[in-house]
Please model this.
Amino acid sequence: MNAVTYVIYAFLTINMVFNLLGSFSLHRFPDVYTRLHGATKCTTFGTIFAVLAVVVHAAYQLHITGDPKYLQMALHSVVALVALLLTNPTGAHAIAKAAHLSGYKPAKAVIDAYEEKLRGGAE
Amino acid sequence: MIAPEFFYAAVIVMIGAFMALLRVFFGPSVPDRVVGVDTLNTLIVAGMVLLGAAYDRTIYIDIAIVYALLSYVGTLAIARYLQGGLE
Model:
């Protein structure tokens, strides 16, 4: 148990807590927009820390053993993280726009700015 | 098994994926199910990266990259279908 192990444990704990919060928020929010908000933000943040833990682990193994397999593992984890960070918010935006256009209105909403924009122009 | 802490983290992430799957099964409307599938895809990518570190195989992380891009295409296709065409 050295300092690198504690760093990996801290990153993995943040990952588990935020991923569980993201999937738990699917069952605690009233409508589709708040569920989308909670689930997308929490799972993206948790996955960032999962990839950080893998990168720290791979860099430490590369420092110990000198095997280039671990350099490949770290670089490919970063590529997976970049793909997820680019695709996750745009996918959530597409789902929210499609849900609003197909007729599912926000529950208990006072102001619906997108509805006003659709009806009355962009001013 | 090389690194058990990554394996247990992947197990916890898969418990979260199961809770997202419950939303897919019992969702009252169609966009709720789509949100459940989107969350499930993100959690599967995270679990795949963690399993690649746990079993010391880099090919699992390559599978995670391809799965992230393909699930994005699937989500966009379902959203386009849901809003009724390209307009």
